[in-house]
Amino acid sequence: MSNPKGLEWLITTSSFEDVFIPEEFNEEHLQIKDLATQFLQKEVVPNFDKIECKEDNIMANILKKAGDVGLLGSAVPEEFEGLGKDFVTTSIINESLGAGYSFSVAYAAHTGIGTLPILFFGTENQKQKYVPKLASGQLMGAYGLTEPTSGSDALSAKTTAVLSADKKHYILNGQKCWITNGGFADIYTVFAKIDGTKFTAFIIERGMPGFTQGLEEHKMGIKGSSTVQLYFQDCLVPVENVLGDIGRGHIIAFNILNIGRLKLCIATLGAAKGAAKESAQYANTRQQFKLPLATFGAIKFKISEMVIKIWMIESLSYRIAHNVDIKEKQFIQDGKTFNEASLGAAEEFAVECSIAKVAGSEMLNYVVDEGVQIHGGNGFSDEYLISRAYRDSRINRIFEGTNEINRLLIFDMIIKRALAGKIDLLTAAKKIQNDLLGIPDFSIKNQIDLFENLKNTLENYKKAILLVAGAATQKLNEKIATEQELIMNISDMIIETYICESGLLRLLKLNSKKTVDIQIENRIVETYFYDVSFKIAKYGQDAINIFASGDEQKMMLLALKRFTKCDPINPKESRRIIAKDFLQKQGSN
Ligand SMILES: Cc1cc2nc3c(=O)[nH]c(=O)nc-3n(C[C@H](O)[C@H](O)[C@H](O)COP(=O)(O)OP(=O)(O)OC[C@H]3O[C@@H](n4cnc5c(N)ncnc54)[C@H](O)[C@@H]3O)c2cc1C
Q1: pLDDT (tens digit, 9 = 90+) per residue, 111-126?
Q2: Hey, which end of the chain has fewer CB within 10 Å, N or C?
Q3: Pairing state between β 169-180 and 160-163
Q4: Ordered structural domains, the chain, with CATH
């Protein structure tokens, strides 16, 4: 791919040649996957209960061991004693450790929000002082943005910073809450407003005078992950610990989130694969009515849905991760610094990162919820891992920007890019009008060519988005911001379409290799497309019915019907084939 651009997929036809798929992992990728998986099995899994009880500072100790084998520094350049690996490689580690429950959260917080702000925004001195030690695990990192009265509205933070009379320190006063790794971290990136207005980041070290922490929170899930409040009472922070530019803390906060959202999605993959495996093994083993649960159609449905959703999200995750890598390389070739290139690449795909965050966290919630259901009463018992998987998954819809905020952002970022001339939505929307003048084809075709049908269906889903989003923004202008229900509908259409496209492109690429049997993948993609046609139709109808009326409403609903048409399949047959394959591969526990 010569020049990947965020959102381009929405207005053009994407080529399978341009996407990276997990089947293309190279030798190094597989080695690192093996390393991370072995680490999980050896150091984390046997300690699940101890981690849950926060025994003997165990989380920090395991993180330190992860540092010893290089797992904390994969994204850190070699000059700061990291491995300097690309985003795909780092993602592979995140996925592999994703089945580590609380450990996975602590790991992600340390290597992400705990390390990256200093790596990307620190001065040379700050980077030399902290980053090698964060990458090796000698220091543990955390990130303090949220406050009791400012969560989603992070910029309304009340923590203040005032320059001391001798101009050597900033004096911080305020409170942060929900700080992951807060109980044992050595280094914190904390946001405060200088003179009550200039939102700025600071590097806080444990032990600085006036800095204390609260007790561990008692949480619904990820109980082994340390979460505390931080208190700043006339806390003296040396001026050299200002991170980035004064008054530009939001640049740090928002840029770090883009990367975090994609990583969160990738971690949900690891968690979901673990939960699906547990569920399949249980279904194969447990008998009721003298038959294994796995023989019942209702259970096969759930297993196949898990497989379908996981495969589709996997396709999307590595597609984005690779795009970020290509973009970063390109920026470096264009003369940008490492920091500019890394942040610029993540920013380019910020919409896709938000899509991934929502899609991954909701996929995982489905998998663990139905996983508990497959386990019946045992699923409600702490003795079974699925119970922990269920409790620990819920947080993913809340942090790294709630899923509501991310849905709002998806739409907002698209409109802003269109207004800035970065994406030509207008021409694309006008083209839809022309298409609508053609004669609609409501006939049911034989499935002569599955791929061509799916490609057409996908292009139609995109048209449905442009139809609804274009008309809604034209009609409501800036008032659309107050119609959040409508924005949610449009964002859901966008999310589902991007998932569809990512899965289809992976399937087409696999098909082009002609070396693998893709029967199951065919079924996965066609079943997802089939389901999504109803979903997109519903989101679209709801949206149209919010802002249109009379003839316009009728016309738009008709057009939507045309664009959400999907060739019928026998979903039961497809799901049974998918479930059978997965259940056979998992064996019994
Ligand atoms: C276990 C855990 C670990 C965390 N770790 C960290 C950490 O390490 N560092 C850190 O800084 N923070 C951390 N957080 C905080 C987390 O990022 C926030 O909880 C999250 O951003 C939501 O903020 P809030 O809890 O204040 O909810 P609120 O912002 O009060 O939101 C409540 C509900 O209202 C919705 N809502 C809010 N605003 C809008 C709007 N404009 N339109 C529509 N709906 C809206 C939200 O989507 C949500 O459903 C953590 C939280 C938890 C629970």
Answers
A1: 999 999 999 999 999 9
A2: C
A3: antiparallel
A4: 23-140 (1.10.540.10), 142-247 (2.40.110.10), 248-589 (1.20.140.10)
